[in-house]
Amino acid sequence: MALCHTRFTSPVGELLLVADDAGLTYLGFAGEDHTRHSAGSTAAHTPILDRAVAELDQYFAGERTTFTVPLSRPGDGEMGFHGRVQRLLATIPYGSFVTYKELAGKAGNPGAVRAVGTACATNPVPIFSPCHRVLRTDGGLGGYRGGTKAKELLLRLENIDFRN
């Protein structure tokens, strides 16, 4: 499958979107090393990338609460702990959050709070698969691949109450 990419200027900075023929494979933030995810990709407009850009525009304008662009993640058939966590992210509704601990329990290992953090940090399609909706038990932000300022902006956009 051919990989294509485009860039999108958002309130959280420039984003790199990469897609194959089946769906969006990667969303990268400014300042990240995108080499592994975009190697061999060509800058192009494809229906999937155009749809992703349109949906992000609507999301940041407060007009979209769910995404419909297809996601294409290598290893989607695998059901390891990280895969289960990443699939569960899609079940966290817009405007709400779960804690790392709650997500660990839902994924079948209540003690694996740090592993949930790792699964969120390696989520290839943040925003579309909303790992920003996972918070610490005390209401604190926790980490975020795009940086805590980006996570805070996304939470405020969705009117999610959290503590700094």
UniProtKB/TrEMBL annotation:
EC code: 2.1.1.63
Swiss-Prot/TrEMBL GO biological process terms: DNA repair; methylation
Domain Methylated-DNA-[protein]-cysteine S-methyltransferase DNA binding: 81-159
MF annotations from Gene Ontology: methylated-DNA-[protein]-cysteine S-methyltransferase activity
Gene3D superfamilies the record matches: Methylated DNA-protein cysteine methyltransferase domain (3.30.160.70), Winged helix-like DNA-binding domain superfamily/Winged helix DNA-binding domain (1.10.10.10)
Reaction equations catalysed: a 6-O-methyl-2'-deoxyguanosine in DNA + L-cysteinyl-[protein] = S-methyl-L-cysteinyl-[protein] + a 2'-deoxyguanosine in DNA; a 4-O-methyl-thymidine in DNA + L-cysteinyl-[protein] = a thymidine in DNA + S-methyl-L-cysteinyl-[protein]
Family: Belongs to the MGMT family.
Protein name as it appears in the record: methylated-DNA--[protein]-cysteine S-methyltransferase
The species this protein was found in: Corynebacterium efficiens (strain DSM 44549 / YS-314 / AJ 12310 / JCM 11189 / NBRC 100395)
